[in-house]
């Protein structure tokens, strides 16, 4: 007994040292680390999707089990696939789409379906002298790419400025988790007192419409995996008339609203105003306290020899959709200046023609004279002698 008692302290220390060594070995033996490159992974319906994962252990002399599980709000929690020491055990219900290739811990889903949207957990368990495990979670979002959106305007026939409202609606035939955005002439359209968006941004309300709303609108539909933009649409807005004005040739304009021309000169005036649809134009003449309708259309041609010396003319425009009208007036004065200038011009041309004709005649006569002297000199001398008187010869003989 005494000998056993003396050995107790030694025996206790030996057991303690053996325990410490075993604990250190098990701690190293049971170290497991699981890593995933991305916590959020995006998937496209109908396409394969890989969930990458890696693990490390402290030693190779152990059994390794890899397990993937899935959890969603609709289907709850379920086991997908398990592998123990490179031996795969797929789940009978879901294993036809979930693949694991040990020793790799990455999970392949092929093809991805909408119901695969949820949380995935990979768990790696090491069994040896002591059990150790580690796990990580990944979030998978599965989407359908958005189709090209289509924008429609209501009312389709058009809206009257300051009177009607307009609604633009954007729709897609395919796509999940779609977010909508509106662009005006290629720039993001912000909400205002007249531009209001629905809660899902699929509809744009314009109340009331103005001429400034006559622009190109497009709708952008996007989700985490795709984006598409509609064709531009311009709502039909009826407005005007605006900026009414009358113009003619600059030489006829004396001052603002006053035109003049000589009697007999053809004169035209053009009336224009910004409007949708195009305006209806009518012309009136005001003279001798009378207003007389002249013609329809934007252009007025005046025969100045058949009009009063001074008269006021008026152009009236009318938009038959908006019901708005406008008018502008100008004064036309006949002047003799134009006719006098025309007569002076004709007289100058006549005088110039006479001078030119006389000059040409004189030049021809001179040329004929010199030609005769050159080609018929004897005949000319003989004729000169023949026509001289006898007194001329007597005087010459005496000398």
TrEMBL record:
PROSITE patterns: IG_LIKE (PS50835). Residues 149-234, 250-331 form the Ig-like domain. Pfam families: Ig_3 (PF13927), V-set (PF07686). GO terms for biological process: centrosome cycle. The chain crosses the membrane at residues 349-372. The keyword Transmembrane applies. Its main location: cytoplasm. It is found in: Cytoplasm; Endomembrane system. Keywords: Cell cycle, Cytoplasm, Disulfide bond, Glycoprotein, Immunoglobulin domain, Membrane, Signal, Transmembrane, Transmembrane helix. It comes from the Eukaryota. GO terms for cellular component: centrosome; Golgi apparatus; midbody; spindle. It is a single-pass type I membrane protein. PANTHER family: HEPACAM FAMILY MEMBER 2, HEPACAM FAMILY MEMBER 2-RELATED. This is Ig-like domain-containing protein. It comes from Chiloscyllium punctatum.
